[in-house]
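User: Please predict the structure of the protein below. I'd like the answer in structure-token form so I can feed it into my own downstream comparison script.

Assistant: Understood. Taking the following sequence of 254 residues as input:
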Amino acid sequence: MHVVPLPALADNYIWLLYDDAGNALVVDPGEATPVETALAARKLRLRAILLTHHHNDHIGGVQALLARHQVPVYAPRDDRIAHVSHRVDDGDTVTLDKPTAAFRVLEIPGHTRSHIAYVGEGLLLCGDTLFSMGCGRLFEGTPQQMLASLDRLADLPGDLKVCCAHEYTASNGRFAQTVEPANSDLLQRIEQVRTLREREEPTLPVTLSTERATNPFLRIDSEDVAQWCSRHGAAADRVSRFATLRAAKDEFRA
């Protein structure tokens, strides 16, 4: 399976997956044009669309794509998402013949109440819940829900390639460095990201094991992160630490 992040809108990635026979699927097409351009350039046939949540920058291109490609659309149970042929729940498996692929569905509320992820083919397609060295804002969920969702993702195999939906990595790294300035893995990742962005290349996908070593939102239980949270007013419990960290990221400007 070939995996390509297609830049879209301001800083989104639409994930294009395709096989050597020219069969493709896309994840979270916020607009149609980048998808159509990529399909034409690679001589691919679109076979399916997967959606993680209802925000328009993730679903805005679905209707236009369906006007040209009659394909199934998989999405969470949320009436705010239209043009869906298959509603999926936690524990369901999305099985495709072309390209041959299977993805397990995980419910991961927090960013939105109905957010889901797709796990399979060595990939974690996580929408706006987990970002490289960061996590999504809490638009509808609670800190407790988001932390539980991130814990669930962190427990997946470390060799999974994390396919986030935004190029937020450099900014996230700058914030993460304020939390763990002595984290050598984090410093190495920040330097890698700097080099990639200077070349105008994506910083994604990235392995989940790298995220566990560098992402403060997956490191709530590490001593340095816990101490940072305590200094910034968090109580001793994990949810309070996460809420303090997320609030600080919301205010971070650098």
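That's the full token string. The chain has nine helices and 14 strands.
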